[in-house]
Design a protein that fits this description.
389 residues; alpha/beta; Aspartate Aminotransferase, domain 1; Aspartate Aminotransferase, domain 2; 2 domains; 7-stranded mixed β-sheet; 3-stranded antiparallel β-sheet; 14 helices; 14 strands; globular; binds pyridoxal-5'-phosphate
């Protein structure tokens, strides 16, 4: 089956965060959702659920758990997920927030590797903790973890948890098995619980996969939980559904307690229907989407090499978020993003949103039709060229 990602319904005036936050003449390539309609099987499943017309409280059925287990087994080699290992919830943010609550006490430190997803910071703070920041290091244009610094932070007795992002938003790395294993070993050695946010795990360069943290050796897995969701790859973030998965029954119990304390343990009836249709029936759509996204990535990369080589970017291994190094143009990403939005009419995220280590970078969301991307690229180039510090 072929899918058309070139044409999408207009999202202007649909209460879209992405499209309706700024003036209507601004092309928004900022917040992480896509402009594409969801896969046909998901639309059909939602329509069937809607046609029923009754939307009372719903149990999470066995086939929901079966869909998750089958998906992760066949797509990612993660075997043996059972119902008892899964806690459904309303989003990945509530998921990792509950895990932080379960594994820290106020005053503790939680490791984050910056630049990192901006909503990691409030989740740490809202649980009364502080971030222990381990900036990623860029070597030959590729971001890597600083394992020595990680070990030092983990060894601090105030450090009790680590928020891992795999694939990593915003630098686009898909961590290797070796890297994940080192993280797992360091954290286990120092009694630091690993919370692995894998929301972007389906969005990897075509032909490549990702390594679920839960496929590491079992002693490392027992010291972790995974937060995942079909919302990013299938563009159903507004439907709000996610899962926490943990192998160890004690871990499940502890996080279940925290998620109940936070009162976010019920799910949306549409979320259940959408997840099943995504995992059971939308594999072909997802693969076609990845081909399309990485054509977009190639277009952006080649355009910058040709037109503005002083702006560089690491290879995009995962996510649909490109990380543009604009330090040669302006050291302040906020000023640059404001200029681009107000004068060039294109909205990107300033890198400073993702921690100090993101200063001087911009995050570009390429999950849009090619025509939108081409128009945005032209505005972006002229905005970058016209910027005067
Ligand atoms: C790494 C990461 N985690 C979590 C989220 C948000 O998850 P949710 O909308 O399910 O709360 C995002 C959204 O961009 C993200 O990039």
């Amino acid at each position: 089956m072929t899918y058309n990602f070139d044409t999408c319904p207009s999202r202007l005036n649909t209460e879209s965060v992405k499209w309706d936050r700024y003036a209507p003449d601004v092309l928004p390539l900022w917040v992480a959702d896509m402009d594409f309609q969801a896969a046909p099987a998901i639309l059909a499943a939602l329509q069937r659920r809607l046609d029923h017309g009754v939307f009372g409280y719903e149990l999470v059925p066995q086939d929901y758990y079966d869909a998750i287990a089958s998906w992760f087994s066949r797509r990612h080699g993660w075997e043996g997920i059972t119902r008892e290992m899964v806690i459904p919830t309303t989003g990945v943010i509530p998921a990792y927030s509950a895990a932080i609550k379960a594994y820290t006490r106020p005053g503790d430190r939680v490791i984050v590797q910056t630049p990192c997803y901006n909503a990691f910071f409030p989740a740490v703070r809202n649980n009364g903790c502080r971030e222990a920041v381990n900036p990623l290091v860029c070597r030959d244009g590729r971001f890597e973890m600083d394992f020595e610094a990680l070990e030092e932070l983990a060894a601090d007795e105030r450090t009790t948890a680590m928020l891992l992002c795999n694939p990593h938003n915003p630098v686009g790395r898909v961590w290797t098995r070796e890297e994940l294993q080192r993280v797992g070993e360091i954290c286990l050695r120092h009694g630091v619980f690993v919370i692995s946010d894998e929301i972007h795990c389906e969005l990897t360069r075509p032909g490549t996969g990702y390594v679920p943290f839960a496929t590491l050796p079992s002693e490392l897995v027992r010291n972790s939980c995974t937060c995942c969701s079909p919302t990013k790859p299938f563009n159903i973030a507004g439907i709000q559904i996610a899962n926490i998965i943990a192998r160890d029954p004690d871990v499940v119990r502890r996080i279940d307690r925290a998620i109940n304390d936070n009162e976010c343990c019920d799910v949306n009836v549409f979320g259940v229907a959408a997840l099943k249709a995504a995992y059971n029936e939308s594999e072909g759509w997802l693969d076609a989407l990845r081909d399309y996204l990485w054509e977009n990535e190639r277009l952006v990369r080649e355009t910058f090499v040709r037109e503005l080589p002083s702006v560089t970017m690491p290879a995009l291994e995962g996510t649909y978020l490109m990380w543009l190094d604009c330090r040669s143009i302006c050291p302040s990403s906020e000023r640059l993003a404001d200029h681009l939005r107000d004068n060039a009419k294109v909205a990107l995220c300033p890198g400073s949103w993702y921690g100090e280590a993101g200063e001087g970078f911009l995050r570009l969301n390429i999950a849009c039709p090619r025509s939108t991307l081409l128009a945005a690229l032209s505005r972006l180039l002229s905005g970058l060229r016209s910027f005067r510090p």
